[in-house]
Structures are given as structure tokens and as C-alpha cells.
Amino acid sequence: MAGAKHIAGENRTPRIPESIMTPLLSWSLRYVTCHAGDILAARAELDRLEATRNRLIAAGEGLDPAVRRLRQRERLLDYVASLRQHGRGIPIWTTAHNGATRTDPQTGAVTPPINYHLIHLHAGINAQAEPAMHLGLATGAPDLIAAAIAELGTEIGGMDTPISADPDTGLPWRTRFDAKVLPLEEVMLQSAAYIVCAFLSGMRDSEIQAMRQGCLSITKAEDGTILRHRIKSTAYKGKRGGGEETEWVTIAPVAEAIDVLERLSARAGQARGTTTLWPVLTLRANTKTHVSAEIVRQLNRFRDHLNDQFGSAQAPVIPAGPDGRPWRLTTRQFRRTIAWHIANRPFGTIAGMIQYKHASVAAFEGYAGSSRSGFRGEIEAQRALGQIDDILVYFDERQSGARLGGPAANRVGVVLDTAAHELAPLPAMIADRPRLRTMLGSLARTLHVGPLADCFFDPATALCLNRSSEPGASGPMISMCEPVRCPNACIAERHRPAWQRGADEARLLLREKRLPEPQRVTLQAEVARIQRVLEQIAPGTATPHNGMAGEEEEAGLRVTD
């Protein structure tokens, strides 16, 4: 009746804190780009060993058991000779499974037990099918193995696949694989690939898990340059029961993660007769085909795995959440988090050198940017929420005595002070936040965050629009901002580092004795302009940095207002 527009409720899905998302994505990318090759190579090696073992067992069928045992001992001796030749030890398991351990007869150290599984693969034995053939039995070869350990020592894992170097330390990123730790690392790789796909594509969980073999296509230019990475999958939200096949445009890291998933899932997919990229990787009987909701457990297991393998109690790889407990990851959090970051930090860095802008362009270009996807609307909603959060920061800093600079400082300051006066918060008491958000909503809608100044956009007075060739622009042209002249510009304390860097760089150039006089005058004026800006933010703090004051005075470069 009052004509108020309906505003959908705020998304209650929590954003993953940046302190958690940054290392989580960084390690996920590391698994996909650095560790995946080792994991896939180890699986190929294990498959070859099992195929060779099966062939040896088939060749020995019908032979006398004593003859078979003799051949097994001969193959064991050949295996030990190969270890000796390459300077390696008898394999032991990576961890003490089921609490079983061994005590080293020479050092007395307690270690995981001997990896008889790997030894049996080389000797051509299936101890599960024929327990009597176990080499650890008295009728097996415990004497040969004990002698080999005394000579060669032991080696954790024992598989031949070499381990690549960690990009940070230059050391192997883990010990050699064995048949128990390899399936774990495969699941961790699947989880890492999910995080890369979910966070960098903006796709929903149902859309990600609908991806199948061959879903990735690449568009190239005539010279072979890659123009687009496209994902074909199925969208379900708002669609009929069977969903609707659609395409997404994505970025290179997601394409690399999909390539890894295609190789990782091939074995399980072939065994189960499915082409999904998300099969349950273990081939045990009575397990479901698709990972589905189990991915949530895997994601949190991946978080714990990173902390256990690469961190410590004092310095975890993935820090705890705000409540001091491990942050519980869910599939919905990734889309919400990337939408917020694209809306509020379009030029920020995600991980390494990947930019939010790159993800934003890709997400908007394909289906994810269309009205059917809802992703554009979700980003706009996050941008509106981000504007409210930013204006509340302005309010809180103003209440704490912070000063504003720039032509719009007085206008913004009056609105903030009026809100504070109407709310009349007591000292050391936070104002009524919901009411404050409502009071400052109009001001927040005009706020656009910038690197040198924030713009409280008013198209009637915006200088950037006078210089723009785009008629009818609905927002500011941040790249054409004139922060010391435009009536919409407001400079806050958080802009100080950028202005100070500009002053330091100008002073550095002024130290050049061969600098032409016109350039010297221009740089002096620039330093004076920056000092006036810094004085507006915090009087008395606009002093030369990096110990340059004395040198400038000696060179006759003293700058005043």
C-alpha cells in the first residue's frame, strides 16, 4: 500500500572468510597443477603391478605348490636386487594401519609394518586369495626379507613413482606412495578439483556434479591461441525435472581441473559404466556410483588433510574460523563467496595471479551471466550488500574520530554525523545496526570503491562522465576518476598507502640531477598535491618517507602547501 518494493531476503549462506579461502584455493590449485601428475602416475603404476601379478599367477596355475613357491622367492630376490641397484630400502607402509607396528631390530625405532602388499605384487602373489602364500609366514621368505632389511634398510611407501618437488621448499611434497595412501590422495585430488571448479566458475553444486567426460571444449584462434574454455553441463534450478543442457564460459584453471578429473575418474567410471566426472573412486562392492552429497564430507576431509600433512598445530595450513573451530565447508558457500568477491573486489587477486576480474568476465560471458542462471543477479545482490557493509565501515571509523578528504568529504560527513545524532549511540556502544543500515541505504547505493578515492556517484556532477565517450553511463568511470577535483570523490584512511606510494615515487624521481626543469616543477606540484590530500586525512602525518627529507632539502626541493 505504501508503494515499497519487495526486496528478497539476504542470502544466509555464510561467505568463506578470506583467511580460509585464500590458502584453501591456493592448495587446491597446487594439487591440480603440481600434485595431480604424481597421483595419476602412481595409479598407473599400481594398475601395471596388479596386471603383472595377475599374469604371473595365471601362468603358474596347475604347477606344484613347491615350484610356485620357488619361483616366488626368485622374483623376490630379483626385486631386492633392483632395490639394491637403485639405493632403496625394503618398503614399509606410510602409516601404522589398524595399530600394527614393527620395531626395527637395529635402531629400536617403532615404525609402520612391512609393506607386504607391494612385495607380493612384485613376487606375483595374491595373499587375499591365497593366504597360505603370504611371504611373512614361516613357509614364505621371512629370512630373505629380514636379511634385505638388515642390508638395505627400509623405505616409506615403496612405489617407484617419483615425487615432484614442492614449489615452495624444493623438496618432495610427500613420501612415496603405497596402496593405502594412494586412494586417499586420489580423493583429496578430487576434492581439490571440486573447489577449483566451484569457486572459479560460479556454477551450482548440481551443475558441477552434472559434468561428464568430454564436457570441456576449447575455442582457438587461427594461430592456435586459446580464446574460450567452455563447459557443457545441465542446469536444474527453475527447469523441468530433467534439467536443461547449457554451456558455461570459464577460465584456464577450471579447464585444467576438468582435464585432471577426466583422467582421475576414468578408471572408476569404466568399472561402473558411467561417464560422470564425479564417481566414487573406490571400487569396493556395495558403494554408490556418484559422489553426490558425500562431497561435503570430502571437502572437510581435504581441509583436515592439508593441516595434518602440511601444517602444524601452531601453524595450520587452513586456519580456524572466527569461533576458533575448523570452518565447516559446504557446497553453497563457494558460489556465494565468489559472487561477493567479484562484486566487491573486481581487481583483487584470488590465488597466485588469477584475478577476480578474469573470473567475472568469464562468468558473465556464458550461461552464468544470463538471466536464466541468476548469477548476475546474485553478484548484484552481493554488490548491494557490500556497499552497505562499506558505508557502515565509514560510519564506525567516523565515530572513532577518523577524518575524510576529497571534495565529497563534507557531504558524506554530514550524512554520517546526522545518522549518528539521530541514533545517539552511547559511548562504547554500537548503534542499532538494522536501523543504521536503513538510514544510510541511500548513501550506500551511490558508493563505488576505488583505489585512490571512493566515489559517491552523482551523474549530474561526475567529472568522469564529462570525459567519457559512453552516453548514458549508469555508473562512474573509475579509470577516469579525478579524486581531488570531482565533487563525488571521498578519500579515507585506507587510501593512504596508494597516495603515499605516489609521493615516494615522485620524490625518488626528484633525486635525479639530470631531470629537466619542466618535469621537476611538475613532480614538485604532484608531491604538494599529495601532501594536501594526506593532510586532509590526518593532519601532521604527511611527511616524506624512506628517509628522503634531508636529501630533498639539500637539493633545494623543499615542498610546501
List keywords for this structure.
4 domains, 561 residues, 18 helices, mainly alpha, 3-stranded antiparallel sheet
Describe this structure in words.
- This protein is mainly α and 561 residues long.
- It has 4 domains: 35-156, no CATH class; 178-369, no CATH class; 383-468 and 481-491, no CATH class; 496-554.
- 48% of the residues lie in helices and 8% in strands.
- It has 18 helices and 12 strands.
- The protein has helices at 18-59, 65-85, 116-123, 142-152, 181-201, 205-208, 252-272, 294-310, 332-344, 356-365, 375-399, 409-423, 433-439, 441-445, 463-467, 496-510, 517-537, 549-554, and strands spanning 90-92, 102-103, 110-111, 154-156, 216-220, 226-235, 244-250, 349-351, 354-355, 447-448, 454-456, 489-490.
- The strands form 5 sheets. Strands 5-6-7 form a 3-stranded antiparallel β-sheet.
- Strand 6 and strand 7 form a beta hairpin.
- The longest helix has 42 residues, at 18-59.
- The radius of gyration is 32 Å and the shape is elongated.
- The two termini are 57 Å apart.
- Mean pLDDT is 83; it is low at 366-371, 426-431 and 542-561.
Q: How many strands appear in the DSSP assignment? A: 12
Helix- and strand-based class? mainly alpha
How large is the share of residues in beta strands? 5-15%
Number of helices: 18
Can you tell me the number of structural domains?
Answer: 4
pLDDT average, as an integer?
Answer: 83
Cα shape? elongated
Quaternary state of the chains: single chain
**Strand order of the main beta sheet, please?**
5-6-7
Largest sheet, in brief, is: 3 strands, antiparallel
What is the string of helix and strand elements? HHEEEHHEHHEEEHHHEEHHHHHEEHEHHH
Query: How far is it from the N-terminal to the C-terminal residue, by CA?
Result: 57 Å
**Poorly predicted sequence stretches spanning 5 or more consecutive residues:** 366-371, 426-431, 542-561
Supply Rg. 32 Å
